[in-house]
TrEMBL record:
It comes from the Bacteria. This is Orotidine 5'-phosphate decarboxylase. Its EC number is 4.1.1.23. The lineage of its organism: Bacteria, Bacillati, Actinomycetota, Actinomycetes, Propionibacteriales. InterPro entries: Aldolase_TIM, OMPdecase_type-2, OMPdeCOase_dom, RibuloseP-bd_barrel. The gene is pyrF. Pathway: Pyrimidine metabolism; UMP biosynthesis via de novo pathway; UMP from orotate: step 2/2. Residues 31-278 form the Orotidine 5'-phosphate decarboxylase domain.
């Protein structure tokens, strides 16, 4: 006998769109996104070995301490994948633990491919039946924005979100992102236009589910960064980004910014109270952003 889900059942089980959930979460828990980045230097700083046991201790301790107090946690998939299947199993537990504590999970995977492979990546990170299912995922559009269609469709089907690489702060980025398309627009500008189109129809006081990744320390840009969706700003904190930088880079679009910090917060561990205090201090600093 085939188990079929009716339209009314689907409506009951599909969560509110990611943009709506993110807006509610940042209103109640602050707008800081904390990265869970268990790289070797941080493991050693916590007095842990750079092995699966150290990874598990670090990642779960950080998640348990921070998830009840942060709107978004952003595990960096690569730092778990380097330990193979055992590392991915830890990542699954991080996702489950964070979501159980009420934090949204943004999987920092930066995936991008075409056709069925793109669809498989989308199902891995956005389909609720996957043990890695997250509220949103970072993706790369540099095989052409249309290559992200499986991600877009899967995100819409499950109330999830996408954060698309647009203007990153790595020094190699401008050779692609600042290149010009045949119509004279920059590649980054084309990507931002695509995101605005995906968020078309979103109410003025709402937040779309499709956003951009724009570094907190990039040079000021003439691009219109208001895509009606979230603007993930990595590089805030230990990498040099400040509240003043967020105002400088994002201007009127600063209201959409989701600042992301990893080392600035994680370096306060392993004491959970110190980790939470680091989040509280950052929340206080970001309050000035409005």
């Amino acid at each position: 006998m085939t188990d079929r889900t009716t339209d009314s059942e689907a409506a009951r089980t599909t969560p509110a769109p990611f943009g709506a959930r993110l807006k509610a979460a940042t209103a109640s828990r602050g707008r800081l996104c904390v990265g869970i980045d268990p790289h070797a230097a941080l493991l050693r700083a916590w007095g842990l070995d750079d092995d699966v046991a150290g990874l598990e201790r670090f990642a779960l301790s950080a998640t348990e301490a921070l998830a009840p107090y942060c709107s978004v946690l952003k595990p960096q998939s690569a730092f778990f994948e380097r330990f193979g299947s055992r590392g991915v199993a830890v990542l699954e537990r991080v996702v489950a633990t964070a979501r159980e504590a009420g934090a949204l999970v943004l999987m920092d995977a930066k995936r991008g491919d075409i056709g069925s492979t793109s669809q498989a990546y989308a199902e891995a990170y956005l389909d609720p039946s996957s043990p890695l299912a997250s509220d949103a995922v970072t993706v790369s559009p540099y095989l052409g924005f249309g290559s992200l269609t499986p991600f877009v469709e899967t995100a819409r089907a499950h109330g999830a979100g996408l954060l698309v690489l647009a203007l990153t702060s790595n020094p190699e980025g401008p050779e692609v992102q600042h290149a010009t398309a045949p119509d004279g627009r920059s590649v980054a500008g084309v990507l931002l236009d695509h995101l605005r189109a995906l968020n078309a129809g979103v109410d003025d006081d709402a937040l779309g589910s499709f956003g951009a990744v724009v570094g907190a320390t990039v040079d000021p840009t003439a691009e219109d960064l208001d895509v009606r969706g979230p603007l993930l700003a990595p590089g805030f904190g230990a990498q040099g980004g400040t509240v003043a930088d967020l105002r400088r880079v994002f201007g009127p679009a600063a209201r959409l910014v989701l600042p992301s910090s990893s080392r600035e917060v994680l370096a306060a561990g392993p004491d959970p109270v110190a980790l939470r205090d680091a989040v509280a201090r950052t929340h206080d600093a970001l309050a000035a952003l409005g």
